[in-house]
Specification:
The chain has 424 residues and is mostly helical. Helix content is 65%, strand content 0%.
Length: 424
């Protein structure tokens, strides 16, 4: 019984690792299987000689996530949103629970490596497919509406750029785990292929920013100690190099400048007809106004669209409404609108708790997890990354895989059978 369940557990983890980045329907099925598997392990725990347990080293992350979920749950009692919308938004944040759940499903270093290998295989397929689209080669499995126009395979070019940048960083940091004489070299080549895809193939500006941040972090880690005082210059230098080399980066920076200037000139604040940057600035302005009106407890889970429409009618000469379950394209402000200043503190607490977990890990796992965490923190500045489907699932499951890798250390304990390494 135990062997069958343990094998089934690993299969579920690998399915989830392969699903992230694929169409949202496949991700939803993978998450459902994980939840059913967790329920099964709970029901049959007494029949297992080694039951499924949560890792003690992740207690800060578990606590921070549970407190955040409790806060969102309690806010249903005062939310401005209808009950169904509030519950729908609450369910979107429940994906945070997959960070400790995925880590708990992985019970050894070997299993973590296998799951990450599955993750890497499907991410590599996505990168290669994007390059094929770029060279006008038909890709039958590309389901994205923007596949032909923007070379994205399964999701939007915005999401795909972020995910590809994270994949490149993970390949670089974990290159020594790839087996074979040329394993490390192959992983490095894949990382480079993915980075080139972000800067020269995909359009997403957030993906460009995330990639620049991750490259800067790698360079900062590789700098000799005597040059660490120049770390602040690294992002500037990297940005200058990419602007000189990549026409897509050049054009997107020019677009941002024009859009921001247009917004402040009164030409880009329209919700419907405005530019990407103009719409974001308009949303952020309304979010700050909502937080100023309700700074302590916010307006409750799922209330953003209700609050935005209220403020539009109150403060705009030509108000425009947005659809229900919308978001301000900024995760920190979204939490602030729903839970007040405390909501932003809770989101930061989750990020800090995950970072704290990485400090006890070996260098390979720590740097890959910290890079992924940085990518999440940066992308949350420009999008509601956790709230959004697909990209939020990508980060939660990826962080769960990397935290599990770090929990079990860099090497199995001598004399311990594979799959039964010590966790402390």
């Amino acid at each position: 019984m135990q062997t069958k369940l343990l094998n089934f557990r690993l299969v579920l983890v690998c399915i989830a690792a392969a699903a992230i980045g694929l169409p949202i329907a496949i991700i939803s099925i993978a998450k459902l299987l994980l939840l059913l598997g967790a329920a099964g392990f709970f029901l049959f725990s007494r029949r297992l000689t080694r039951p499924l347990t949560l890792h003690g080293r992740l207690r800060y992350t578990r606590l921070a996530i549970l407190i955040a979920m409790l806060a969102f749950g309690l806010s249903i009692f005062w939310t401005a949103a209808p009950l169904l919308e509030a519950l729908g938004s609450f369910a979107k944040y429940a994906k945070l629970l997959f960070i400790p759940l995925v880590a708990a499903f992985i019970q050894s270093r070997r299993e973590a490596v296998l799951a990450l290998g599955t993750f890497a295989a499907l991410q590599l397929l996505m990168v290669i497919s994007s390059w094929l689209l770029f060279f006008h080669v038909p890709v039958p499995w590309a389901t994205s509406p923007t596949a032909v126009l923007y070379n994205s395979v399964f999701s939007s070019y915005l999401d795909e750029g972020i995910m590809t940048a994270v994949f490149a960083a993970i390949c670089w940091h974990l290159r020594k785990l790839v087996p074979g004489r040329f394993g490390s070299l192959i992983a490095t080549g894949i990382a480079l292929l993915a980075l080139l895809n972000v800067f020269f193939v995909l359009q997403g500006r957030t993906g460009h920013v995330v990639a620049l941040a991750l490259i800067s972090l790698v360079i900062a880690w590789e700098l000799p100690r005597r040059y660490r005082k120049f770390v602040a210059l690294v992002p500037v230098i990297v940005l200058a190099v990419m602007v000189a080399l990549s026409p897509k980066v050049q054009h997107r920076i020019i677009d941002v400048k024009i859009e921001v200037m247009g917004f402040f000139a009164g030409q880009g604040s329209s919700v419907v007809t405005g530019t990407s940057s103009g719409i974001r600035l308009h949303f952020w302005h309304r979010a700050l106004q909502s937080m100023a009106d309700h700074p302590l407890i916010g307006t409750g889970v799922g209330s953003w669209s209700i609050e935005f429409n209220r403020l539009e009618r109150l403060k705009s000469r030509s108000p425009e409404s947005i659809r229900i379950m919308g978001n301000p394209h900024q995760e920190y402000l979204l939490w602030g609108v729903q839970l007040g200043i405390g909501g932003i503190i809770l989101l930061l607490a989750i990020l800090v708790s995950i970072f704290r977990e990485t400090l006890a890990m070996d260098e390979l796992a720590a740097r890959s997890a910290q890079s992924t965490l940085l990518a999440l923190a940066v992308s949350c500045l420009f999008n509601s990354t956790i709230y959004d489907a697909l990209i939020g699932d990508f980060f939660c499951i990826t962080l769960g895989l990397l935290l599990a890798l770090g929990v079990y250390g860099s090497q199995p304990v001598a004399g311990t059978p594979v799959g039964h390494e010590r966790t402390e």
